[in-house]
Design goal:
11-stranded mixed β-sheet; 10-stranded mixed β-sheet; 31 helices; 6 domains; alpha+beta; Transferase(Phosphotransferase), domain 1; Prot_kinase_dom; Phosphorylase Kinase, domain 1; single chain
Length: 1243
């Protein structure tokens, strides 16, 4: 038997890996044959019973128990084969498992079969005389070597024991996503039984079949029940689609469960996915190649039609993208390398629509697909269930990219993708007047490329390429979804071609010449053909798309009079796509496409739900405000000081700066040289001076919106372009306000179309506090009141004390008091300001000693300059009351201060608006200052209409967010809680509300991070964000706050209390001290951002626990732990401080404590430790609390553990008490994971 065992081992696959080796089916059959078995039994007959008939035993083994015999030989217990024979124990009863003594009835070790069809009594009888060691030897490892499963084409679902060994040989490429892990494997050919002509087939090599094995992964945000539900839904979808036997739909090989894990097996696509395919340039565009391209595109349309209208129900894919379209080699077309069969895969999001979607009122809850190929309805408010036309938009995107790749190659396709704005989507969301996202339009960059392709000589309208583009533009990339047909068309059975393979019995492929009829479908009682116009405003459905593609292919392959060419021909140099600095850099107003209106916004806003959290700002003209502000305006007050046209050099004189397509280049040295005699070169030279550009480096300038920028069209604007009402078509009605300046008309009245891409704005900023300035502020308030409704109409709150400024003629104001606990009508403004250095600015405060005097009246002239300016603005805007902290809180009354500080949330959220004195360094500085002088160049068009190029000063980030005022800790809360804020900077004024930021230059700005703080109902906007984005926003907020200055560091938890309360309420959780129960683990994982933190030793009121960053002075940041990348500690290991009853011990003073187990650290000086106070020494060794661990390298010694480093403080009532000392990224080998004993308290 030893020799036979050696033969078995030599025949094993992966024989060198004891945990993975297995015996393949063919080897098993080769080794276990009657002649060999009979010979072995004869040679070892002495170990068998005398009554045993060896011939019958041999026949039993070879016909029914080959695996059993092989296992027995392997474990050197071959003589026990008689016990299996006597009990008729066959291979079908494998595998078996040993029940523990605790599970058995008599306490002995018993064996049971995992096959529910087996006879368990016979199984137990077979092993009744076996020792426990022999049973374990059979069950634990050895049986699995001989039980590698065999997959059959007719069976789809399998369930295996977790120790089962899959018949996989070599592993290839791997790909991991948040929801799955895909690996390429070679499956032994014995273990995959498929027909030779199976649809698409499974590619094979010398060793076996190449397959893709997809393991489903459960995200930490998905419950176990939902994970099982989603896995079953995907399995159901794949099983149904596999039964369609469609050549352009992936045919899953199997779905199996391996213990608790879920897997799918697919054919391996040798040529990768469609994006991989596009990485190489297309072949020459001859008729054969174009025929193949259109055949594949037709096949995809046919596949979607089959999905949407199958006999099994109406399926929607939900995640169409190039990465989910696989490229399989066409075995029937080996002579044409580089051509493949496109197959739609990854139906993990597919959902069946068993009834017509418009009869299903509930909005779809299917997990979202890939953002770039989302249709617009994915982000618009859902009023009804998502339709199958979701897929039509996605396929339209893919068709357009395929067309761009065909015409302009890989580089052209990459350029198209980089030029897409608005988070790389094919559409943009448009807010309505109330700021709500309720409509969408095709992305201007997408339209730019389609417009350019129309002009390509290869794509005239009456060619296959031209008709494909027309289908994409007019029927697929259509925003309106429209009604769903009342009938559900059955899939066509006469036009099923499109792969290059005929799925009928004829293996050869010829495009059949079919009679294509226009389908008749009923829409709201009106009959119309698919080619008609009655439904053209709505996106096509799959039937129309497929038949249109079919008609294009038929027309291009016809030999009759209706034949069209695949593409047009031209002797001219071929274009390379639209110019980089084309019309798309501004929203084109002058054209419309196929009845689709084009926005007049120069730059668009994107939806807050999809925009990335970055520091990039979007700019758009504030046309509505400009219309109102400039009506009746005294124009001389806003014209540049230098009258007349600016002097320009020859180059600049010839530039069409009014054109949105304008671009030019120069060097810093060239600009400096021309600056003496050219105002524009001088201005550009000065603007480049602050950038790191070599003197002779060529710089490209170009128009973006109503700006001039350089280097990268996404860069910061350096010049703003403005025009005045008399030269802009938007202001024809203002001609009655024509103004003469020094006897000279500033420009021709009426419309000059050349200036249509330039916004109305101020060439010279109005003086701060001037009538024009006040008019701008009043317009912002009026516009917000009428359109955004950021300030509720029913606000009845008035703070405890306010200044009454209504008596403007008396030169006094008075402190209006005693409203606490009452709701008094009356609008008030709140002042946000710096107190400033006491050495430079006088303190003007309310104290117990002077409050009665202040009630009687205060001379405005006695107030500090900043307060005087606030009074002036409040009066000019017609508001009666003004709230100023130092005057409206009694500064030497602790009880009053404590009570009023708790009202800060209501004070700022109830204010009609907040005045932010951004440019005032203290109370005496004032904020109505002369603006920084702005250089301006005056230019004329050929018709004499003037426009202006001025320093670009729209920089909310620099002037406000990075300004001195916003570096103060209290101001962050004031900004977030204020519904509307007016910022007075040294350059201009800004307005911030729920509708975004408005600039005094008549420009609007928007950024998602800023919108989070500017939300009029802060932080309501985050309710629609996914969990990861909510975490990112609040962490960014707290990181920012931790770096801000406070006059008293003891105010650290108080100065943000109102803001934190709002967040807790919105997140629907509990929490405090900068930590939310809902995001407890990530919230605890903060670290110092600088050299050290400093523990704050005393606070006003309750103590702050050491696990909170609020207990320290200094900036923090959160540890970089990937979303979905951690397995967090459970409640039994670490109990939240918000769940622990901290009132049990009154000596703790109500301080929140964390209860957890602590572990010793092997290397406490490791660089993986980030100490809060690096210079601090500790009397006892540091220990750690494990908050979570990485889900990578699970169980291995290098697995990362996310920990809080703690130091021992004392022992109270038998419980050890610790304090936080830092955090750590500790590998498992650095932590002693032994007996943890009792939990400790971290206070």
């Amino acid at each position: 038997m030893k020799l036979f065992r050696r033969k078995i081992k030599a025949s094993m696959e992966l024989k060198d890996d004891s945990n993975s080796c297995f015996l393949a089916e063919s080897k098993l059959n080769e080794l276990i044959c009657e002649s060999t078995v009979t010979k072995l039994l004869d040679e070892h007959g002495s170990k068998l019973s005398t009554h045993t008939d060896i011939s019958k035993l041999s026949a039993f083994i070879c016909k029914r128990a080959k695996r059993v015999f092989a296992i027995l030989v392997w474990i050197e217990r071959e003589h026990r084969i008689e016990e299996f024979y006597d009990n008729n124990f066959t291979d079908e009863w494998l595998p078996i498992r040993a029940k523990s003594p605790d599970d058995s009835d008599d306490g002995d070790c018993e064996v049971e079969s995992l096959n529910p069809e087996s006879k368990q009594e016979a199984v137990r009888a077979t092993f009744s005389k076996w020792s426990e060691g022999d049973i374990d030897n059979f069950c634990d490892n050895n049986q699995w070597k001989f039980l590698a499963p065999v997959f059959h084409e007719k069976q789809f679902r399998y369930e295996f024991h977790e120790k089962s060994r899959m018949p996989f040989l070599n592993r290839g490429d791997q790909k991991k996503t948040n929801f799955s892990f895909v690996e390429e494997w070679t499956m032994h050919s014995d273990h995959l039984q498929i027909r030779a002509n199976s649809t698409i087939g499974i590619p094979s090599n010398a060793k076996g079949y190449r397959v893709a094995v997809k393991e489903l992964k459960r995200s930490q945000f998905v419950s176990h029940a939902d994970f099982i539900k989603n896995a079953e839904a995907e399995a159901q979808a794949l099983e149904t689609i596999r039964d369609l036997r469609h050549p352009h739909l992936i045919k899953a090989t199997a779905y199996y469960k391996l213990g608790p894990k879920h897997y799918f097996i697919f054919p391996w696509a040798e040529s990768g996915n469609l994006w991989d395919f596009w990485e190489k340039d297309p072949q020459p565009l001859d008729s054969g190649y174009l025929k193949w391209v259109f055949t594949q595109l037709l096949g995809l349309a046919w596949a979607i039609r089959e999905l949407h209208h199958s006999d099994e129900g109406a399926w929607r894919h939900g995640d169409l993208k190039p990465e989910n379209i696989m490229c399989f080699d066409d075995k029937s077309n080996v002579k044409n390398s580089g051509r493949c069969i496109l197959v739609i895969a990854d139906v993990g999001l597919a959902r069946v629509h068993a009834m017509a979607t418009d009869n299903r009122p509930d909005p779809t809850s299917t997990q979202s697909g890939t953002v770039m190929y989302w249709p617009p309805e994915r982000e618009l408010p859902q009023q009804q269930a998502r339709t199958r036309r979701y897929d039509i938009w996605s396929l339209g995107c893919i068709y357009l990219e395929f067309l761009i790749w065909l015409l302009y190659g890989t580089s052209g396709l990459r350029r198209f993708r980089t030029e897409l704005r608005g988070n790389n989507k094919f559409y943009v969301i448009q807010p309505n007047q109330a700021g709500q996202m309720e409509s969408a339009r095709v992305n201007e960059d997408v339209q730019k490329w389609m417009d350019s392709i129309k002009k390509d000589p290869r794509c005239p309208q009456n060619t296959a390429l031209g008709r494909l583009l027309n289908l994409i533009e007019t029927r697929l990339l259509v925003v309106k979804v429209g009604p769903v047909p009342s009938s559900n068309p059955a899939p066509s059975t006469k036009s099923q071609y499109g792969t290059g393979l005929d799925v009928s019995s004829n293996p050869s492929f010829e495009i059949p010449l079919l009679q294509v009829r226009a389908p008749t479908v009923q829409f709201n009682g009106t009959l119309s053909a698919s080619g008609g116009n009655s439904s053209d405003e709505f996106r096509a459905y799959a039937l129309e798309m497929h038949e249109t593609m079919e008609h294009i292919v038929k027309s291009a392959t016809s030999s009759g009079n209706t034949r069209i060419e695949w593409m047009g021909k031209s002797d001219k140099p071929l274009p390379e796509g639209p110019k980089k600095f084309g019309d798309s850099l501004t929203a084109p107003q002058a054209s419309a496409v196929a009845g689709r209106s084009r926005s007049k916004d120069l730059v668009y806003f994107t939806d807050r739900f999809s925009q990335t959290l970055d520091d990039n700002w979007e700019y758009t003209p504030d046309s509505d405000s400009a219309r109102e502000v400039f009506a009746g305006l005294d124009l001389p007050t806003i014209l540049p000081p230098k009258k007349g046209i600016s002097r320009l050099c020859q180059r600049c004189s010839s530039l069409h700066l009014w054109s949105s397509r304008c671009s030019f280049s120069d060097t810093p040295a060239g600009l400096a040289e021309k600056s003496e005699h050219c105002a524009l070169c001088q201005l550009l030279s000065r603007r480049l001076a602050g950038h790191s550009i070599a003197k002779h480096e060529t710089v490209q300038f170009f128009r973006v919106g109503s700006y001039l920028t350089f280097g990268d069209r996404q860069g910061q604007p350096i010049l703003s372009l403005y025009t005045l009402p008399g030269a802009h078509p938007f202001y024809l009605h203002l001609s009655s306000h024509r103004t003469i300046v020094n006897g000279t008309d500033p420009g021709p009245q009426g419309s000059d179309p050349l200036l249509s891409s330039i916004q109305i704005g101020f060439p010279r900023m109005p003086d701060a506090g001037s009538p024009t300035h006040i008019k701008v502020l009043a317009e912002w308030i009026r516009s917000c009141d009428n359109k955004h409704h950021c300030y509720p109409r029913d606000v009845g709150f008035l703070p405890t004390r306010v200044l009454d400024v209504s008596d403007s003629g008396s030169g006094t104001v008075s402190l209006f008091c005693d409203t606490r606990g009452h709701t008094n009508p009356g609008k008030y403004l709140a002042l946000s300001h710096q107190w400033g250095s006491p050495l430079q600015h006088k303190k003007f405060c309310t104290y117990k000693s002077n409050i009665d005097k202040l009630k009687q009246g205060i001379k405005v002239s006695d107030l500090p300059r900043t307060f005087q300016d606030a009074v002036s603005i409040t009066r000019d805007l017609g508001i009666q009351y003004l709230w100023i902290d130092s005057l409206c809180i009694i500064q030497d009354d602790e009880n009053d201060w404590d009570m009023e500080s708790k009202l800060m949330e209501q004070v700022f959220s109830s204010a009609y608006a907040t005045i932010a004195a951004s440019c005032a360094s203290g109370t005496d500085a004032g904020f109505l200052k002369a603006y920084t002088e702005r250089q301006c160049v005056t230019v004329e068009t050929g018709s004499g209409a003037r426009y202006y190029l001025c320093d670009a000063i729209d920089d909310f980030s620099l002037h406000v967010e990075q300004g001195e005022l916003n570096k103060r800790g209290w101001v962050l809360q004031e900004r977030a809680l204020s519904r509307r804020t007016i910022y007075f900077t040294g350059t201009q004024s800004y307005w911030e509300c729920g509708g975004g930021v408005r600039c005094e230059t008549m420009t609007q700005m928007k950024n998602q991070k800023a919108s989070f703080l500017g939300d009029a109902n802060f932080p309501k906007s985050v309710e629609d964000y996914v969990k990861g984005k909510k975490i990112k926003l609040y962490q960014d907020l707290y990181e920012r706050y931790s770096h801000l200055a406070l006059s008293y560091n003891t105010d650290r938890p108080i100065a943000i209390k109102g803001l934190e309360t709002r967040l807790i309420r919105t997140f629907e959780t509990i929490g405090g001290y900068g930590i939310f129960e809902k995001y407890l683990h990530r919230g605890l994982m903060w670290q110092r951002s600088g050299d050290t933190l400093k523990r704050i030793t005393s606070f006003r009121g309750e103590r702050v626990p050491s696990w909170s960053w609020m207990a320290y002075d200094g900036g923090i940041k959160y540890m970089d732990i990937p979303l979905g990348g951690a397995i967090w500690a459970e409640d039994k290991d670490m109990t939240s401080p918000f769940k622990v009853n901290n009132e049990d011990n009154p000596e703790d003073g109500g301080e929140k404590r964390l209860e957890a187990w602590v572990c010793d650290i092997v290397e406490p000086q490791s660089r993986q430790l980030i100490m809060d106070e690096p210079g601090r020494s500790f009397a006892q060794p540091l220990r750690c609390v494990i908050v979570g661990r990485s889900n990578q390298a699970e169980g291995e010694e290098n697995q990362i553990h996310y920990t809080i480093i703690v130091s021992f403080v004392t022992r109270k009532e038998g419980v050890e008490v610790y304090e936080r000392a830092g955090v750590g990224f500790l590998e498992k080998r650095h932590i002693v994971l032994g007996d943890r004993g009792a939990k400790v308290h971290v206070q």
